[in-house]
Each structure stands twice: as structure tokens, then as C-alpha cells.
Amino acid sequence: MFDFFVELDDANAAEKIATALEHLANQRSLRAIGNAVSQLNGGIKISLLRVSGVLADGKLKIEKEEGIDLPPDVPDYSFDQGELLRLQLENQSGVDLYLTLFDISTDGSIQILYPPAGAALSLPNRAKVKPDSLIFRLGGPAGYETYKIIASTEKKGPSDFAFLQQAAISRNSGAVSLATLSDWTTSQVNLWISDKVK
User: Fold this and answer.
1) CA–CA gap between residue 144 and residue 79 (Å, rounded)
2) What Å distances lie between residue 83 and 3, 23, 31, 132, 135, CA to CA?
3) Which one of 5, 25, 160, 175 has the largest count of C-beta atoms within 10 Å of its C-beta?
4) Is the link from the previous residue into 115 a cis peptide, with omega within 30 of 0?
């Protein structure tokens, strides 16, 4: 779990274990959030693009992007640490939606990746977005990484969902109610990140 352990003689071991378990419960809860009765279900698509390129002046110069299709009988994507990945978000819902993209990470953290802090950006119907901020070099520890979107017809953004964020687990140590939104849905992709490094 999060590559986490405590030393046998650690005086704060119980507190550290409780914090790690709380992080795990928060991650599981966010992964499980959904709205089964929404007419928007299936309307948001998260696509994964394998990226190759070279670093020039501290920025990645993309030479190639290729979509990654998951075989129908495979539940999760599989990647090695060090691989480059880009996310593309697409609104296929029939209406404009406000998106908030979360990274539920293998290190125990939950972060809002998109849109930028303080923004509430609408993704028009049938539009796609693949911001440079959604290019990642996958890291460890090994485990499940989830990218999850909460999408709403109402103007909601990262500040409305900031209460869901949490820091990573270390080896050493104004909430919005979804029930009040007029219509909302979720979408997510799961990645298994191995302990192999490329």
C-alpha cells in the first residue's frame, strides 16, 4: 500500500498506519463515486495517448502520439514507470460540461489536475481537449493509478472539489454536495504501474 511501512520501534507507528488507512479509504471512496441515474453517463471519454519526444530547453518536444486502445477483455491499462502518457478528454454528452479531473495516485495522494486552480472551464459538446499539463512521466510506487473526472452541467471547478485532495503518504512520516447538482456524471481509467523502470 503506497510503498508504505513503519519501523517496529517508531513511537508514532499507530498514527502513521491510521493516516495511511484513511488515505486508502478516501481513494477508494473517490473511485467509487458515480451517478447511476444521470442522463450524462457515458458522455465523457478519457483517452490515453502514448507520447514520445525529446526534452529541449526544459520542455518536451512531442515527436509522436498514439492512442492506446484497451482490449475488451482487459479491465485496466498496464504501464511501466518512466513511460510518457498524455490524457485527452472528450465531451460526448450532448451538452456543455464543467470538468474536474482527479489523479488518484499510487503514492496515496489525490490531486486535481484539470482545470487549473481557480478556473471552472466548460468543455463544449463534442469538443476534445489535451492540455500540455496532462502529459506525465509515470512514477512509482507500483500500484493502481486512477484518473477520474467529475463532470457537471453546473459551473463547478477545482475549488468546489478541493476538499477531496490529500497529500501523498510518506514512509517517514467549503464542500459541495453532489446531490444538489442538477445533473452530473463521472468517468475514469485505471492504470497498473509496474515496478519495472524503463
Assistant:
1) 10
2) 19, 26, 23, 16, 10
3) 160
4) yes
Q: Please give the sequence-ordered ranges of beta strands (E in DSSP) within 16-171, or none if there are none.
A: 44-56, 59-67, 77-81, 84-91, 97-104, 110-114, 122-123, 128-129, 135-137, 143-152
Length of the chain, please?
Answer: 198
In the block, residue with C-alpha cell 473511485: 31
Query: Which of 2, 24, 47 lies closest to 188 in space, CA to CA?
Result: 47
Q: What is the pLDDT of residues 12-48, one digit of tens each?
A: 989 988 988 999 999 999 999 999 999 999 999 999 9
* C-alpha–C-alpha distance, residues 62 and 60, integer Å: 6
**Residues of the chain under the 70 pLDDT cut:** 1-2, 170-182
The bridge status of strand 110-114 relative to strand 135-137 is unpaired
Give the cell for residue 178.
Answer: 453532489
pLDDT tens-digit series, residues 155-174 = 988 889 999 999 988 655 44
CA distance 123 to 97: 5
Beta-bridge partner residues of 48: 87
CA terminus-to-terminus distance, the chain: 22
